[in-house]
Amino acid sequence: MRIGIDKDTCIGAGQCALTAPDVFTQDDDGYSTLRPGREDGGGSALVREAARACPVGAITAEETEDAGAVPFRTPGDTSRVPRPAALRAPVEKPPPV
Ligand code: SF4
Fold it and tell me: What is the CATH number of the domain that holds 50?
């Protein structure tokens, strides 16, 4: 995942750090910054929630080609998310009774 923080837009509300404290923190001036080693989100499912929680839309989160990436769905998105191949195996029918 590629996370962006628009430092010119951030107002230091801190919602990102409250929502995903393992990934976001605030610098000495109160503006959002990523925790060291968490520049890719660290697999946290809360990064998307943090982006939604930001009142000024300063956070962007884009999926990269990493395996196991969690698809981003917005509220009201009813499109289907492809199931992993392991879950697409045919189901055997039970024998007739
Ligand atoms: S929630 Fe948005 S405005 Fe608040 S600190 Fe985080 S990035 Fe900045």
Answer: 3.30.70.20
